[in-house]
Model the fold of this input.
Amino acid sequence: MANSVATSDAPACASSTSALQQTLVAKLDYDQLTNCMRCGFCLPACPTFKETGLEAESPRGRIALMKAAVDGLMEPDARFEEQMNHCLGCRACEPACPADVKYGQLIEQARDAIEDHTAQHRWWVRGVRKIVFKQLFPNQARMKRLGRTIRFYQRSGVQTVVRKLGIVKLFSKQMHAMENILPEASNQGVIDIMGTRIPARGEKIATVGMFRGCLMDTIFTPTNVNTVRLLTEAGFEVVIPTTQNCCGALHAHSGETAGAQDLAKKNIKAFKEAGVDYIISNAGGCGAILVEYDHLLHNDPEYEVDAAWFAERVMDVCDVVFKKGRPLDFKSAAGQDESIRVTYQDSCHLKNVMKGGTSPRQLLKSLPQVDYVELQDAGSCCGSAGIYNLTQPDMANQILEHKMVNVKRTEAHVLLSSNPGCLLQMKLGIEQHHQSEQMRAMHIVDFLMERFEVSRV
Ligand code: SF4
Ligand code: SF4
Done:
């Protein structure tokens, strides 16, 4: 449990310790820190350790650094913060750990503590974070306006002029690369297109609440629409509560725990009022925090029961369709004579936190005229990791380079994923490796709907 240091054997903080050290003592779960028995089983699973070979860039190393800081054996300096920020938060270390160390919780607690102090010193960081975390993501109307602005930029010719004048080159190399592969934004969200209650096709199996997401409903709206269609065809009535909000994942991973908790409370209320049987996500990054709302609010007596109700209902779209839905009649794409080869890059959070890596593969293997080929190290992070590829571009690109070696070996025509961030990162890799003639990246839901028996629609 967080803050258990107060009741554990942790040493008291000396008066000379830094403010950050004291906050780490208050926020880090000392029982979890001591649970790590330093066996090292997690090391081969960790992408940053695999890239660098450095103990400090491994889960065991980071836990040792946290514990040393809490024990007063070292000052948590800039290098300490750097090591915490280098972690992708992919949580591949957790399934590998025989002691069940909750590493994801530890890194969020460490970042929460760091954030409390860096924000005191850098006014401009505070300004940017205030806009992103407090004014943009939690406000769905503003997210919609952002979508419209991006769409105007893409469609009005401004993007062409900006590119011709080389203005995008003024941004960082990474921002420039991402601008190139951004899909066309939508001026409508899934509710504008589908409504808030969409009946099941045929006999209803259950009522599901759809979590529409911020990014998903701004630049991946067609995927949200396809998610509704897939669910209804599989026998689910779909409800999309209008009062739902951002999931809070970016907040939690960036040390904004209080902001994540506020968003969680709004979402719990919205889906509880909707009275749904399951809560469905089509983005691994969102789903992973939704499924952990019970932990996020475990210290809040007013919400802990409802948070547990919410968390136990969260499922990924492929998981609910495969495990609970009616079998669907998939077909070959129109005009397709030969089999096409597809592969799948795991969303780390879907695989490691939601334990949902099997259903997407099973669905793909069930498709006619589709040869599924397993991507080597598909479960290893692609380097996207929320906004990691923008904040840590060097490490993100290094990881992507190694990922693309395996991707090219598959000789797949379609590279699928279950998370918008992974999808963009895969598109980036395909572009950078000049593979776009022979390979495309798609969200798995879009691919499934492309192959659904349209005669039933
Ligand atoms: S979350 Fe990922 S990058 Fe961070 S320590 Fe664990 S395996 Fe390594
Ligand atoms: S596998 Fe678990 S117990 Fe072993 S070093 Fe890694 S975090 Fe510690």
